[in-house]
Amino acid sequence: MKKVICLLLPVLLTACAYPSIGDKQGDVPPRIVQRGEYKTWDNPGAFGPVPRELQAMGDKICSSLNTDKVKHRALGYHAKAEDLQGKPFVGGGYYCVPQD
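Request: output the structure for the sequence above.
Response:
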C-alpha cells in the first residue's frame, strides 16, 4: 500500500504544508493535481475564507481526515474548485489543515 500524505475526498484535500489562502476566492479556481504519488491543490492561494454558513459543513468534511493524533479543520473554500479532470466539484471544495 502506498504511503499517502494528502488524502483526496470528493470535495476536499488536506493541506500538506498549508500555504496561506487568499482574502477572497480567486478568479481561477484551484485544481487538484498529481505530484508524484500524491494529489494536492495546485494553488491554495485561490481559496478564500470559508463562508460562515459553510464552516460547520467544511469542518465536518475535513474531520474525515482526522487521526488519533491530528485533527483537521476547513481553512479555505472555493465554490468552483476542480478535480483532476478540471471539472468543478458539486458544492465546491475545502482546503483542510491540521488544527493548531
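The chain has one domain: 9-98.
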